[in-house]
Amino acid sequence: MTDRAARGLLVAAPRSGSGKTTVTLAILRALARRGVAVAGAKCGPDYIDPAFHAAATGRPSFNLDSFAMTETLLDAVAGTAGQGAEFLIAEGSMGLFDGVVAEEGRSGANADIAARYGWPVILVLDVSGAAQSAAAVALGCRLYDPRLQVAGVILNKVASPRHRRLVEAGLARTGLPVLGALARDTALALPERHLGLVQAEETGDLAARLDRLADLAETALDLDAIVAAAAGRVPPAGLSPLPEPPGQRIALARDAAFSFIYPHMAAGWRAAGAELVPFSPLADEPPPEGCDACWLPGGYPELHAGQLAAAGRFLAGLRDFARTRPVHGECGGYMVLGEGLEDAEGRRHAMAGLLPVATSYARRKLHLGYRVATLLADGPLGPAGAVRVGHEFHYASELTAAPDESAALARVTDGEGRLLGVAGHRRGRVSGSFFHLIGPR
To answer: Which residue among 43, 141, 291, 331 is the active-site one?
Structure first.
């Protein structure tokens, strides 16, 4: 623990697939192994990477989102993320400047976070298929946004010593220091599936993988220079509240099928005095007694549809709970609250039947983007008329017709204000939608 405010860095890249997660985990694990009080964060809406950061550092990792979070909430989450740490290293998502079309500082891009807190950028460059030309990309990133300071670059997928010399020759013209280089190595890649990396808790050899990345960081990266580059500020923790809980004793589904809940949501609920009581639908556990609300997060129910359909105690207990207390489902949880779920092979599995929706993973279509939702009735997300911001990322399709406003959860627009109609369902005390709640607007 330290009383000194944390300094920050952003590990970003010109595009997705450049190796940001590999580099971030390598740095986090290596510094933690040295005894440095380091914490991770993730820019943008991602449910999976923060768990890897937490595994690497032993500290919670939180999402920072300049579009979906108000400035007050963003500072509160950043302060919570950096509490007790000397360094806060944020991992970007997509490309450094990728976001929605919005006012400066509110686009959801990684760059907004670095600019707001004065965190220098470490740029990860995938140099496969390029040599000196990679320097032009790095130079463009440095010049594109005058709010940012690019502290240096880390080269990824270097083919040979000669290849590295050519890339560095180009970078010498830009004045950007090279802080390390990683060779092409498929063994470094973490296992993936359709929504991103296989979850941290499902990666059986994760500790060994993280230690191999730390070993690599010690030999291939200039960790001292990376630490020296950290700067800027992290807001103090506790200056403003995190999101309010839907109840004071919340039954929270938690297993391999239900795990996508943003860390700041759970932290906010606990900070408000709520107790989170986990239970496992895959283990055929019903929502625990004595709870006054039930929350089914997203995850991978489509991979476990048969097991969930056969979980009689869970389904009966969920139906019984919903008779007297609120139940809300996000994305995968919404699918399980519906009438049926079609798996990738086209087999239909009966679900809880609490909402009049049927979904299919066999009829895959990517649904991706921010959702700004105006609630149509009082419920676990807030009172009628309240505006909530979330994010949708799934491949499932709805087989049933969209509800009218009398049965829908919310009217929604995308991140740029385009009307998308209504989203989700509500019936009695049960509600759900495909978007994951991030915060109020």
So the answer is: 331
Confidence category of residue 363, pLDDT binned at 50, 70, 90:
confident
Same-domain pairing of 162 and 270: no
253 with 224, same domain: the answer is no
User: What pLDDT is stored for residue 239 in this prediction?
Assistant: 72
Q: How confident is the model at residue 128 (pLDDT cuts 50, 70, 90)?
A: very high
Same domain, 187 and 294: no
205 plus 288 within the same structural domain: no
201 with 260, same domain?
no
What residues pair up with 9 in beta bridges, in sequence order? 89
Q: How far apart are CA 341 and CA 351, in angstroms?
A: 7
Is pLDDT above 80 for 118?
yes
Say what the pTM is.
Answer: 0.94
**CATH number of the domain bearing residue 380:** 3.40.50.880
For 328-377, the DSSP string reads: EEETHHHHHHSSEEE-TTS-EEE---SSS-EEESSS---EEEEEEEEESS
Q: 384 vs 246, 277, 354, 379, 438, CA distance in Å?
A: 14, 27, 21, 8, 18
Give the separation between CA 180 and CA 75, rounded to whole angstroms: 31
What are 148-206's pLDDT values in tens digits? 999 999 999 999 999 999 999 999 999 999 999 999 875 666 666 455 556 656 666 88
Q: Establish whether 43 is a catalytic residue.
A: no
**422 part of a folded domain:** yes
Q: Are residues 412 and 335 in the same domain?
A: yes
Is 234 a member of any domain? no
**Pair 90, 64: CB distance under 8 Å:** yes
In a domain, 270, yes or no: yes
Whether the predicted pLDDT of 385 surpasses 80 = yes
What pLDDT, in 10s, does the model give residues 12-60?
A: 999 999 999 999 999 999 999 999 999 999 999 998 899 999 999 999 9
SS3 state at 404: coil
- The boundaries of the domain holding residue 40 are 7-229
Q: How far is CA 240 from the centre of its chain?
A: 22
Domain count, the chain: 2
For residues 324 and 411, membership in a common domain is answered with yes
* Residue 377 placed within a domain: yes
* Cα–Cα distance for residue pair 89/109, rounded to 1 Å: 16
128 and 267, same domain (yes or no): no
pLDDT of residue 156: 97
Sole residue written with tokens 């019984």 = 320
Tokens of 395: 């491949």
Residue 222 DSSP symbol? -
